[in-house]
Amino acid sequence: MDRIFERGMLYDFYGELLTEHQRQVYGALVINDMSLSEIAEEYNVSRQGVHDLIKRCDKILNNYEDKLCLIKRFKSVREKVCEIESITDDERVRRLVDQILEEM
């Protein structure tokens, strides 16, 4: 999985489980696409401090995924729904599939 995409998924699924400070800094990297230097300046910490915090957040979020597997399950359900869409000609089913995919 692409690192940027992976971090985004982890943040979307588990970001609320981080502390407020971790969420802000990690969100600045993932959501706002800020560099470590920009984040360091924004939060008045060293670049190394930001780097260490990002690494710690990566580890925390990956541990949540290892235990809960929410992203893995999400991807599996999404693949199955897309497969259903590809094998049906029923317009009602296609509308339901579209609704499900929008909600995901």
Brief overview:
The protein has six helices and no strands.
Largest sheet: none
What is CATH's topology name of the largest domain?
Arc Repressor Mutant, subunit A
Number of helices: 6
Mean pLDDT: 93
Explain how this protein is built:
- The protein has about 100 residues and is mainly alpha-helical.
- The chain folds into 2 domains: about 5-70, Winged helix-like DNA-binding domain superfamily/Winged helix DNA-binding domain (Arc Repressor Mutant, subunit A, Orthogonal Bundle), CATH 1.10.10; about 75-104.
- It contains 6 helices and no strands.
- It has helices spanning about 5-15, 20-30, 35-45, 45-70, 70-85, 90-104.
Secondary-structure blueprint:
Layout: H1 3-14, H2 20-30, H3 36-43, H4 47-68, H5 70-87, H6 91-103
Helix pairs in contact: 1-2, 1-4, 2-4, 3-4, 5-6
Key features of this structure:
0% strand, 104 residues, 81% helix, 2 domains, Arc Repressor Mutant, subunit A, mainly alpha
